[in-house]
Amino acid sequence: MAKAPVLTPQAEDFPRWYQDLINKAELADNGPVRGTMVIRPYGYGLWERMQQEMDARIKDAGAQNAYFPLFIPQSYLTREAEHVEGFAPELAVVTHGGGKELEEPVVVRPTSETIINDYFSKWVQSYRDLPLLINQWANVVRWEMRPRVFLRTSEFLWQEGHTAHATYEDARDYAAHIHRNVYGDFMTNVLGIDVVLGRKTPKERFAGAINTLTLEGMMGDGKALQMGTSHELGTNFAKAFNTSYLSKEGQQELVWQTSWGVSTRMVGGLIMSHGDDNGLRVPPRLAHVQVVVMAIKGDEAVAKVREIGARLKAAGLRVHVDDRVDTPFGRRAVDWELKGVPVRIEIGPRDLENGTAMLARRIPGGKEPVQIDALADLLPKVLDEDQAQLLRESRERRISRTSDVATIEEAAEAALAGGWARIPWSVLGPEGEAKLGEQAVTVRCLVAEDGSVPEADDAPGTLAIVARSY
Amino acid sequence: MAKAPVLTPQAEDFPRWYQDLINKAELADNGPVRGTMVIRPYGYGLWERMQQEMDARIKDAGAQNAYFPLFIPQSYLTREAEHVEGFAPELAVVTHGGGKELEEPVVVRPTSETIINDYFSKWVQSYRDLPLLINQWANVVRWEMRPRVFLRTSEFLWQEGHTAHATYEDARDYAAHIHRNVYGDFMTNVLGIDVVLGRKTPKERFAGAINTLTLEGMMGDGKALQMGTSHELGTNFAKAFNTSYLSKEGQQELVWQTSWGVSTRMVGGLIMSHGDDNGLRVPPRLAHVQVVVMAIKGDEAVAKVREIGARLKAAGLRVHVDDRVDTPFGRRAVDWELKGVPVRIEIGPRDLENGTAMLARRIPGGKEPVQIDALADLLPKVLDEDQAQLLRESRERRISRTSDVATIEEAAEAALAGGWARIPWSVLGPEGEAKLGEQAVTVRCLVAEDGSVPEADDAPGTLAIVARSY
């Protein structure tokens, strides 16, 4: 099938390609209030699947869902000094409610550490109440000066986990467990993105944290995207809100806390990791539509695709039946390609005679005829191959576009050329980090030589990964 | 087991009983900003199950989920005259964002008809784009002067469906389908509440609707709770936002619309329908914890309840294992009773020898010894019985506390005595409705004599159901 280019090619203008894809694949629109977004059904379907997969992993990690209010008294934000400094410039403030000016303005939550600690301080009394492991799915608002759909929006959807522990070690281990076994597992094995797990430098830490763990993905243009973070909060918020417990030994002790979040930003990461000049490519384990069964034309084909669709659904696949034969087939095929559905099964009048269909694969590309009766067995294998291919491509890109360098100048050069640089942190240091910052290059994270997460910034052999970022 | 009364008895003070239950069963707390609430994990678990069941039914009805922004430009609200009049007194207004005063203040959505129509007017071009069936799960804000947890809160969680259709009939039928087959089915068969389906009088309609369908439940004190509504919007919003389409015949036509919602208010309805002086009683089909397997004391009992818990989970039951033997058994049993878990399986040292357990049933009450090996077969039957009992009790209450009356005075008397009255709408009429309103008695809905929903307010034989309400 010959195609007119529906998207600006990536190589020509990557940001424009990204915006084109979001529009044409009907993922999202800009909202009427600057920086907000409307997530359209196909885009929201991606987010729903992310929620499902993540929620199951969060529950496996022992956390329970709850819901805290959108509105936080302004005074709460100021209790933790670094926290308020970090968030003050981004706040949305409600000054009027119910037709009157409020006595105390309230802020729309930019994150919920403060309000949650207000309740933790009531709920936690004894060591028996610990660990307290809470998660919430919510919208948050951070006023955004340079918005970009999914990546930086004034309102976004996320989950935020908040936990309280009896000891430093328990909190540290839990933050690490979320980082690796919840977020890392999901991003690698469901999103198919070969994320790097590391720790943030002090400069890049969350406002109020003693340690921030991050997952960084390399996008199609070689820039980095922070895909999620897990923070050790130490006792900073516990002190500010007096969140303490009576220990087994009868002492009143502050709790040690963590918080961790991933957001609709992951949808942006998915697009920029796996998209190509024909549109999105959705990893099969994530896809809410893994297979679209398309009638090319004719009533018999329509009846057949409905039948095949029902059969494949019963076999456990996530299937959409496209029987809109009053819309030209070519236009529909381009649309499913834009939307990145891994597999299309196309049925036309000739296929009905032969018991065959065309199998079109979005991820490796190409088409081949297949026996309809073989589909239920064949498709799970095809989808497994496709899932593996996306992760492999992501890994290959990261490896081929990461260079080991010895100087700050080389690091900057590699990053500005559209790749990542690895440089010893002992060479770079906070001063070098500041210098890179002048060229809009940042330290994405610190990693150990063996790829593990260093226990401290100054652990021997620690490497900094340096890149431009979203 | 002798119990001290943990809750204010219902007969003594129903509102205090309600608040006691919410506190002691750890369902929710009041938020720091007036009228807001913190939904605690056990309460949120109820809401999550409501969402799951409702979401599946909404998807079966063909609607797709999407997400629209929290912030709406203030000017949008004013485009539909009745709508703004209805909501203006309840709005929360953001005047500052990102450290600056905004050029145009934005309101926090009280509902999303206006912003959604802004997008529908872009997305809908041709008859091929119809029907457009969208749902969103979101938080909304309506500033509340007399807040009560779950029932009237300044922020609440809900789903709001919004649809656009080519004809009046198609919109009318879809609103009715949601009313009966989505909401009615869920409330009757999952929540176990014998809701009455009817239409609102013009006075009680949603601001901007041409018809509002409602589901009204009778609470334990005989008052009514509006559990959900489905609206026909006619072309009111379509006119205000110019949401139109090119018909098959080549004419530009306005769309016909519906909107419909249920909220965390249903949690309040659940409590007030099924709760008793010992706490909540959760219908098994809803319950996120259907069975709690409790170790009374001792390590062997702990090992045993874990084993039984795993076995019952594998059998498809929603099970919680309570192995906190360092907390007194009696206190834990009272707690599960407060939380309304339908079935407790209690295992003590003696049971281990005999291969038996105590089966304690929250809904009919009572305890009996059972063979542990029989549990996986027995429990689904027990839970089915319990589900049926709650619906039966709800139906019996509604029937026994509803009286047919012939005059406005009798209607007011029946309602003020804690019941519902049924009176011909031809006798009551808008004037009688206004008169009842002076005594805080309202027309909950209009129904036909055979219990169906009248096609019009003035359909012959239409009855008004009159009650005090939440």
TrEMBL record, chains A, B:
Catalysis: reaction(s): tRNA(Pro) + L-proline + ATP = L-prolyl-tRNA(Pro) + AMP + diphosphate
UniProt subunit comment: Homodimer.
Cellular location(s): Cytoplasm
Protein function: Catalyzes the attachment of proline to tRNA(Pro) in a two-step reaction: proline is first activated by ATP to form Pro-AMP and then transferred to the acceptor end of tRNA(Pro).
SMART domains the UniProt entry points to: ProRS-C_1
Pfam family, one: HGTP_anticodon
Family: Belongs to the class-II aminoacyl-tRNA synthetase family. ProS type 3 subfamily.
Aminoacyl-transfer RNA synthetases class-II family profile domain sequence ranges: 34-283
Cross-referenced PROSITE patterns: AA_TRNA_LIGASE_II
Keywords assigned: Aminoacyl-tRNA synthetase, ATP-binding, Cytoplasm, Ligase, Nucleotide-binding, Protein biosynthesis
This enzyme's EC code(s): 6.1.1.15
GO molecular function: proline-tRNA ligase activity
UniProt free text on domains: Consists of three domains: the N-terminal catalytic domain, the anticodon-binding domain and the C-terminal extension.
Annotated CDD domains: ProRS_core_arch_euk (cd00778)
The species this protein was found in: Streptomyces racemochromogenes
Gene name, Swiss-Prot/TrEMBL: proS
Taxonomic placement: Bacteria, Bacillati, Actinomycetota, Actinomycetes, Kitasatosporales
Name assigned to this protein: Proline--tRNA ligase
Top EC group: ligase
